[in-house]
Amino acid sequence: MREKAKNAMRLILEAARFDVEEVDDPLDLSAVREGVCLLVLCSNDKNLISQFDKTNYSLMIDDHEMNCKKLLFSIDKDISTENCIQWGVDEFVRYTGEAVLADILNRELALDLTPSKSRRPQVSSSAGSAAASQEPTGISIPHFPIKLTEQAAIRTAGVQGTAKLRFIPYYLFHYTSTGEQVYKDRRIPFDADGWSALNAINGIKVDLDGKQIEDTDIPGGAEVCNPHIRKEEASERMITELIEHLTQKVRIKQEKGDAIFYEEKILKPDRKNITVDTKQVYIPVWQIRGKKIVEVNAFTGELLSEPMDEGVEVF
């Protein structure tokens, strides 16, 4: 069983872009990648595990000494360590499957290399708001709920790195338009009612539904980013774009004798008939910094194709 476990662990670590080699007993593997050294033990032997947990290991590369992390895989649920990254059956099954998928997609597998004693609780994104990694700050802001855990965000990003929770400001608009214009025999209504949103930093528009906003404390350690666009400016832009969207070109056909004439008229809604209710809200985003910076929407789970900010300020 130990040999099969060792082969599977090699597959997982190589999928995470580690250089993996076998080592002498009692250990199984060593894995090195960009300043990280990992020693692996696959065992259920409590005495061997205890010795592994207590021992400090280091690796000398080019006259530079590097402390090694320790990864234990054991199917014994009663085993507990203080100084190891400890994987059981759940982690083994998950990462083995993800390693195969990463190989198929030719992308890097992201691993949780947090020591077991300080691991954060994992909450499924389907169970509502995910548990935050820190205690609440006492800062309450209107925001969309956090539905993606840190580790789920790292797996979605497909890169290994440090994750940071950030709250990106948005202006949420609820707009209404009424009224109509009549031109000759044409009646043009300008009725509209809906929601829209604008990124308060980079000005990109998105579709948001304000019904899911919650006004609760944010997790400790999270960044709250300042808007770069003023609320008045955002509201004015929303009104201007709504007027442009509702504007219609009307063409009237007229006949005079043997001649046919066409008359065009551009009809716009009256500004006084448009109401825009603007509210500043925040969207939670996981930013993963590794070989590159990748951002994942913590509310929708969507991998973002471009950063939601442009070098934001933090308060």
Note poorly predicted spans: 117-134, 311-315
Number of helices: 5
Radius of gyration: 29 Å
**What kind of sheet is the major sheet?**
6 strands, mixed
> Which structural category fits the helices and strands?
alpha+beta
How much beta, percentage-wise? Answer: 35-45%
In round numbers, the mean pLDDT is 83
Give the CA-CA distance, first to last residue: 53 Å
Number of strands: 18
Q: Give the overall silhouette.
A: elongated
Helical residue percent band:
10-25%
- Along the chain, the helix and strand elements come as HEEEHEEEHEHEEEEEEEHEEEE
Defining traits:
315 residues; alpha+beta; six-stranded mixed β-sheet; 5 helices; 20% helix; elongated
How is this structure best described in words?
There is one protein chain. The chain has 315 residues and is of the alpha+beta class. Helix content is 20%, strand content 39%. The chain is built from 5 helices and 18 strands. The chain has helices at residues 2-15, 46-54, 89-105, 150-157, 231-246; strands at 19-22, 29-33, 36-42, 58-61, 64-73, 85-87, 136-143, 162-177, 180-183, 186-189, 192-199, 205-206, 214-219, 223-224, 248-256, 259-267, 274-289, 293-297. The strands form 5 sheets. Strands 1, 2, 3, 4, 5 and 6 form a 6-stranded mixed sheet that branches. Strands 8, 11, 12, 14, 17 and 18 form a 6-stranded mixed sheet that branches. Strands 7-13 form a two-stranded antiparallel ribbon. Helix 1 crosses helix 3. The protein is elongated and about 105 Å long. The protein starts with a helix and ends in an 18-residue tail after the last strand.
